[in-house]
Q: What sequence folds into this?
């Protein structure tokens, strides 16, 4: 993922209504974190 793609995803995220419970995961996803990583974080698993 390059800087332009990240910027586009962050811009899209900024246009969405703020959801404090979901924002951290959406932010991590915007930077290209894998779906499995985000699922583990949601479940409370630590690395």
A:
């Amino acid at each position: 993922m390059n800087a332009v793609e990240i910027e586009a995803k962050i811009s899209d995220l900024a246009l969405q209504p703020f959801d404090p419970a979901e924002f951290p995961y959406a932010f991590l996803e915007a930077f290209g974190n894998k779906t499995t990583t985000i699922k583990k974080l949601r479940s409370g698993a630590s690395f």
In short: Residues 3-43 form one domain. The mean pLDDT is 93. Residues 12 and 30 are 9 Å apart (CA to CA).
